Amino acid sequence: MIGKIKQSQGKLAAPAGIGTAGSKVVRAGFIPLLDASVLIAAAEFGFAKKEGLTLDLVKDVSWANVRDRLAFRQFDIAHMLSPMPVASMLGLGSNPSPTITPFSLGRGGNAITLSTRLFDRMRETTGISEQASALENARALCKVLDVMKAHGQAMPVFGVTYPFSSHNYEFRYWLAAGGIDPDRDVKLVVVPPPLTSDALAAGAIDGFCVGAPWNMVACERGVGRIVAAKQDIWPSAPEKVIAMRPEWAESQPETVSRLIVALDAAARWCDDPGNHDALAEALADPRLIAAPVDIIRHVLAGEFSLDARGNRRVIPGYFNFHHDFANYPKPGHALWIYSQMIRWGQTALSEEGVRLATSAYRPDLYRAALGIGPEELDIGIEGDSQTDRFMDDHIFDPADIFSYVRNFTVRSDLRQNTDSEEI
Predict the structure, then answer these.
(1) Would you state the pLDDT for residue 376?
(2) Which pLDDT does position 96 carry in this prediction?
(3) Domains 9-107+237-303+317-401 and 110-236 share a fold
(4) Deepest of 105, 184, 203, 243, by most Cβ within 10 A of its Cβ?
(5) What CATH number was assigned to the domain covering residues 110-236?
(6) CA dihedral for 149, 153, 154, 158, sign (positive or negative)
(7) Quick one: how far is CA 206 from the chain centroid?
(8) Which CATH number describes the domain made up of 9-107+237-303+317-401?
(9) What is the pLDDT of residues 219-238, one digit of tens each?
C-alpha cells in the first residue's frame, strides 16, 4: 500500500485553480441532508464555476435511487453513503455496479434518536440521568428490552437509511456496545432520511439513526430524544462521499481533477463558521434540504435540542467538512466498513474481499488533483488515540480483520438477505 505522504498539514494551502476553459456540465444526485453541504456549496457559491464546471444538482428520495441512477448513467456523480462504493465493488446488494470515491464530504452529522416514550421508559426503568452518555443510554435500553421480553411485548422497530450505510453500522455498534443483539433483540427497517421524523411521530418506528437535520427536527417536534451522536461511537467514522463510475473517472481525468479542486475549496469554505449563516440560508431552500433555517444553523454549530423539554448539548466539530484531511478517501476506512459487513453477516472475509474493498477508495485521484495528503499511512491502526476512540474501546487493526471481528461478543455468524427492507 501507499506509504507516508510527506506534506505538512500545518502548511496546507488552498490549491490553485486548474483552469476554466471549456465549461463542463456534471449531473450530481444528492439526498437532502446537511452532509451534502460541500457538494451544494460548490454549486451554489461559485467554486465549481471557477474550475470550469457546472454542477447540475438533482435531489432524490432514497439511496437505492441514487445508486441506480448513477449505475444507469442518469448521474455523473452522486452524494453517497461511505459504505456504498465498498458494497458495490464487493458485488453486494441489488444491482451492484462498480463505484469508486476520490473524495469524502467530511465527518460527522449522524445521531441516534429514540421516541420520547421509549426514552422515558428507559429513565423509569434504570434511573439514568438526562445527561447520560451514549454507552449508558445503550445499556439502559438493554435493560428495558429485558423487561419487554419478560412480559412478552413486541420488540421495538428502528429505522436506518440503507443496509450498506454508516447509519446501519453505527446503530448496530451502539446497540451491541450496550449488550443488545441487533438481529435478535430489535427489528431494523429501512426508512428514507426525510421520512424518519414522520415515521417516529406516527409510531411506525421507535427510533432511528440518520444524518442531520432530521434528528433535530424530530426533537423539535417533541417526538424524539437524541441518545448518541456519531462522535460518541467513533469520531473518525467515514460518512458521505462523492461517488462515480470507474469508467467515467478514467475517461475524463481532467474533469475529475477540476471537480476535486472545486469540492476542496467548497469544503474549506463550509468549515468556516463565518460562512454558516449563508450556508444555512442556501440549504434551507425547498429545492435543496427544505428544513427550517434556524434548525440548520444550530446543527452546523453542533448545538442540539436533545428533546422538547429543553435539554441541550453542544458537540464541538459536529460537522467537519475539511479540517484534518476530512476529505481524504482513506482505504483503511474502507476496510473498517468491510469489517462491519463481515461482523453483521453481509459478506465473508477473503483476500479478494480486502482487495475489492480498498479499491473503492481512490486516494490516488485525490492526490493527483490536489498534490497533498495526510502523513499517516493509508491503512493503519484506528481507534488507538485519546481523541479518536471507539465507544467500547476496541481497536481496529486492518492487518487482522478476523481477530477484530471475533473479539466482539455481539456479532452475526450468519449471512443475511441484504436486499430486503428488513435488515
Answers:
(1) 78
(2) 86
(3) yes
(4) 105
(5) 3.40.190.10
(6) negative
(7) 21
(8) 3.40.190.10
(9) 989 999 999 999 999 999 98
Nearest C-alpha neighbor of 281 from the set 42, 111, 58, 37: 37
Average pLDDT, the chain: 91
Cβ partners under 8 Å of residue 417, min gap 6: none
Specify the pLDDT at position 256: 98
299 vs 84: CA distance, rounded Å = 25
- Cis amide linkage into residue 213, ω under 30° from 0: yes
Residues 6+ apart with CB under 8 A from 382: 234, 236, 332, 333, 336, 388, 395, 396, 398
Q: Tell me how far apart the alpha carbons of residues 47 and 260 are, in angstroms, rounded to a whole number.
A: 10
At 272, which amino acid appears? D
Rounded CA separation 74/200 (Å): 32
Question: What is the total residue count of the chain?
Answer: 423
Q: Is 241 helix (H, G, I), strand (E, B) or coil?
A: strand
Beta strands in 62-174 (DSSP E): 77-81, 100-104, 107-108, 110-115, 157-160
Instruction: Report how far apart, in Å, the C-alpha atoms of 10 and of each of 46, 54, 57, 320, 324 are.
Output: 26, 32, 34, 17, 10
Domain boundaries, the chain: 9-107+237-303+317-401, 110-236
Q: With left for phi above 0 and alpha for psi between -120 and 50, is residue 109 left, alpha or beta?
A: left
CB 219 within 8 Å of CB 229: no
Please write the tens of the pLDDT for every residue from 272-286.
999 999 999 999 999
CA angle at 344 for the pair 97 and 378, rounded to the nearest 5°: 65
What count of other Cβ atoms lies within 10 Å of the Cβ of residue 324?
14
420 pLDDT higher than 80: no
Place of cell 473518525: 236
Alpha-carbon distance of 59 to 69, in angstroms, equals 12
Q: Among 53, 48, 58, which Cα is nearest to 288's?
A: 58
CA-derived radius of gyration, the chain: 20
